[in-house]
Amino acid sequence: MHHPPSKLCQNANVPHMQPVVNRRQMLSQTGAGFGAVALNGILAQAETLKTGLATQGCHHPATAKSVIFLFMEGGPSQLDTFDRKPLLNELAGQPLPASFREPITAMGEKGSPLLECKRKWNRYGESGLEISDWFPHVAQHADELAILRSCYGEGINHSGGCNLMNTGSIIAGRPSLGSWVTYGLGSETEELPAFVVMKDQKKPGTNGVRSWGPGFLPSTFQGTPVGDGPTDEAIANLILPAGIDESRQRQKLDLIRKINEMHAARLPNVSTLDARIRSYELAYRMQSAAPEAVDLKRETAATRELYGLNDKPTANFGEICLLARRMVERGVRFIQLFSGTGSGWDAHSGIESNHTKYCGSVDKPIAGLLTDLRRRGLLDQTLVVWGGEFGRTPMSEKGTGRDHNPTGFTMWMAGGGVNGGQVIGATDELGLYATENRAHVHDIHASILHLLGLDRLELSYNHQGRLERPTVNEGKMIRQLIS
Amino acid sequence: MLRMHLPTVMTRVYARPQPVSRVTSITHPQMYRGYRFGLQFFFIASLIALQSYSTVLAVSDTDKLRFFETKVRPLLVAECFECHSADKAEGGLRLDNATTIRAGGDSGAAVVPGKPTQSLLVKAIRYEDLEMPPKAPLTESQQDTLVKWIRDGAIWPAGNHSRPAVKTETEKSWWAAQPLTPGTVPSEFGENRSRHPIDRYIDKSLNAVGLTRAETADRRHLIRRLSLDLLGLPPTPEQIEKFVEDPHPDAYNRLISRLFASPAYGERMARRWLDLVRFAESDGWRADAFRPQAWRYRQFVTDAFNEGMTYDQFVALQLAGDEIAPHDKTALAAVGLLRLGIYEFNQRDAEGQWQNIVDEITDVTADIFMATGLACAKCHDHKFDPIPRSDYFRFRSVFEPMLFVDQKPQGELEVGAHEKVQKLLHELAEVEAGDIQALADGAVDRFPLNVQDMFRKPASERTTYEHQIAYLVQRQVMDEGITTAKVTKAIGKERNEKREKILKQLSDLNANPYEVAELITVADADGMIRPTRLPGRTKGNSFQPGAPSVLGGQSFSEQRDSATKTSGRRTALAAWITSPENPISARVLVNRIWQYHFGTGLVESPNDFGLLGLPPSHPELLDYLAKSLIDSNWNIQQLQREIVSSKTYQQATQHAQYTKALEIDPENRLHWHRTIQRLDAEQYRDALLVAMGALQMQYGGPSVAGTPARRSIYLQRKRNSSDEMLNALDAPSGLVGTAKRDVTTTAPQALMMMNSPRVVNAAKSFANNVRGQVAHIEKAKRGSAFVNQAVEIISGMPANQQTIDLLAPLAARGQEGETDVCHILINSNSFLFIE
């Protein structure tokens, strides 16, 4: 048997992988057939019996089945959106009071005056959450939002921040959150990837493919970019090669199957060969399912309008929000949407024009997504997470912008079992440091995992002798999200 | 001009250091004490694990103990130990064992078991008397936890506060730390008997469960297996034929010799080593900048394997090439191992960045050479392996004085060139007029003040640590502070053009102060060597360089060279790794080589020989091979020859009694047959190029951008953007070391092989290649001949009749049909798997 759990490990009650012994046992362990586990997961299992890998299933009852993570790349300002600081405008123009510890800022401007917030704020919904006029549409969903105002991390620059938010460490090499989730839960679709990544522009994002990379997990669990290739195909290599029609492709596939079955017949003791034969059938089905999944022409005019598809500024992000909903409907587990790849939200100067543009490009689509999920009964099982790699400083930079602030920033969650209409945690009076109920990025990850039924300590992978866990053994569920 | 931007280390001249003495085996007494204390966590785990509760404690005590371990101890560790444990014991109070916690500190008893209200600890956490922890009070539930624990008797597991002077049971039983015990080579067993020592060990364990080894594979399978294994390339039909028909009794050994002699051997072995050491050619942070110098390390590795370098030398050069041969470019490239990690060009937190860099180097060095999860002990004593935290910092201190060095192109100046250089530098200063200096100063100003101070200190006054931080600042000034865009903005296009022209001339004279480094390497820095301490500490205990205690704990004797200032720490580490007394290194290497030839090592977890890994399937065989390796003076090729010449290696994939064998040993851990292997990413791509007749066998040199028709090892490997084809077949990204690749089978992989233009074009070229080879055959038979030839190229086997019947009609349909046949074969398992 490969990788039996260490006795020591079992006796000491240390979480470990439950290995699968052979193919037969694997199939019986994964329950009634293939439907319950990921497309990639099944194949990975057949192939990775040797590493003792198996999708693990829930550790406790889940309130969310899938996640849509709305990543505002570059770092949106909490001070001008969801975390109002009246003192900031009172002290605007003055340096940071001496009572505040001087932070290391990314750009290293020292002694810059505080920058006023020019937004108008209102209270929304029954809960009366304060939201600025940069998010008028999202504000209509105030009662769905749990606003986390006390987020913090160690990522001072974009690379470190994105790495931390996506993989739990500022240093490259760990699996992304989506990879952990699909490793833990698999997917509910065989015809689409379990972990999908979409961007609202072609520009590559900070850290490239690492942001959805599998780290030390098998590559099976990496995110699949959709609509990001050089051609129009939704997923890389989905379209038939030029000059090859459907029947020729089918003929080739049939012959490949026959040849491979002949080969396998000679080697009856090798199960990996079956998995490879099967992968072609799944690929073939993906070829017909994926184009349908991404075909927005099937949506009504009203829905397209809801997501802002008819207006240029919102069309791009609106499209991927709508695609995200279609994927959730089809059982995709983890969907990550990027706004402003290449640090679009990074308003070191001219925050007014930068955020007017970026907030304007996502506000209506996000609101549309929440409305649509709610009316289709999907919001209760779909966790929507909003945020960037960090927030921004109350101090100005270059006169009109704000520098990176990883020590105190805002994210919000909605759906997936989260209690809306509440604010969790707080920053100091100027919004520089998280002070109350501080929520580290590890806590945020632990919470997302928890809502999906995964325990951040029980989900583990033995990598080079270390039981690696998604939150690097730290973090805890933010209970207030569900209370 | 630029006076502060040229770190002194770049231009320093090194003298040859004195030979560094071999490691002594004296155990440092202070270290040993540290070790015993440090074993605490491990001991608890083993206490719980190895003794059943009922024999030690009453049932209710079991619950209390669990409560202690899951709630109380983690709380104490997180909130109290920083100031109140063996390391610090502020106020005379230690909260890390039962005796001292009851005895208390200067203020009196901390805990009165059963009586929370009388316990000073409770008053302190309630902020009633003392206010502890001082930063912020514990949460209510944390307070409740401690109160409940005290009310229930403040139970503390017995045994861990007084450590016996002898090694613990677990420590004694950790197999990897034991001396090599090969035993005597077993006698020959079974019908299929062999005199080869490996076979005798293997047959002994097979015999014990009533199994026998499979027959030897036929020569066609053997040559494909061996070629892909040793060269990473499939054999050509001509090579197959020559071997199959070689009447010489020693044909197989002659084949091995021929393969070892091929330069492709070094390329194949290098690719495996590069996985392990997380080789890639880019920074792997945000910019993911290409590293034009990284290939020199790859070249060293490739050459080392081809030249038959012994492992001890291979290790020494990679850890201490600069100390051993400071003027030798090969040695300086070899120690580039320590420069392979990721790097962020835009990081104002220079101190934090350096800490991460050295942590990573420490971890990866232990993984590569010791297969020991040292990294676990960075923050706490290892929970399972006998590695206390002190071991981590002793190991880390080996790298304490190490400085990154970027060597610019150097060359002898012609007579008169010196004046020319001076003149050009003068012109440069004029055209820059201090503006570039101002840009650079501005870049420095953005760092925290204490970092600026380190940088602005005269180099002669810096400690090793200040040199290290200054290097990071300097590099950032160059990479991020004075970019072309910023320079152009500062001095205007016209002046910059003038400046560029001068710089070009200076480059030709090897005197351009902004020149990109030609070689990235390391050297120990000048100045006082900073004592290695726990993170964030500037006082108190420091750690001297030395080996992990369970592996002997030798101190690494230090001899600072008066001329080069090098400490000799890394040389001592390398010498210890390959000293005959070190039980683990040879085992680790043998296991890696075994894995290279069988797909799985004798120890299945190649980078974890610890207690969470798995014990060896054939411990005596592992030790026999390890001892042979040491006896051969670490000759890697000799070890490989011994392995591949065994009948165990040469077995067929099929076995007459496979049903029975599968029941007894489904995973083939006992080697009753040959486990098939899927081509890895590079084998797949290289074999495709062979099938296309397109592979360019050009040895060595810098990487090539794009997808040239060269072996895959020469493709640029960037961490943030991977080659689609290599990625689909599980090539590692180079972000972390990979001792064993995953082998995944996915639908996207199938899509890539069916639809990607690269594979479709490969099928076309493959078809063209075969077409040329069968053109002389009469038309009626050409379809069959085409299939036969294509199958042989792709699988090393002649096509069987069924395959010909299936594919020949398609091949006879003209070029499109031939391309389809080739595309089908590229997708066939007889191509993708090695029997």
What would your notes on this structure say?
The complex is a heterodimer of chains A (483) and B (835). Chain A is an alpha/beta fold and 483 residues long. Chain A folds into two domains: 66-226 and 300-456, Alkaline Phosphatase, subunit A, CATH 3.40.720; 231-293. Chain A is 32% helix and 16% strand. Chain A contains 13 helices and 17 strands. Chain A is globular and about 80 Å long. The longest helix of chain B has 25 residues, at 484-508. Chain B has four domains: 8-14 and 310-577, no CATH class; 40-162, no CATH class; 197-248 and 583-664, no CATH class; 754-834. Chain B is built from 38 helices and four strands. The N and C termini of chain B lie far apart (65 Å). In chain B, helix 11 crosses helix 12 (237-244), helix 20 runs antiparallel to helix 24 (484-508) and helix 35 (779-795) runs parallel beside helix 37 (815-826). Chain B is mainly alpha-helical. In chain B, the strands form two sheets. A two-stranded antiparallel ribbon of chain B has the order 1-2. A two-stranded antiparallel sheet of chain B has the order 3-4.
Mean pLDDT metric of chain B: 86
Residue stretches of chain A low in confidence (pLDDT < 50, at least 5 long) are: 1-55
Mean of all residue-level pLDDT scores of chain A = 86
Strand content of chain A: 15-25%
Number of helices of chain A: 13
Gyration radius of chain A (Cα, Å) is 23 Å
Give the proportion of residues in helices of chain A: 25-40%
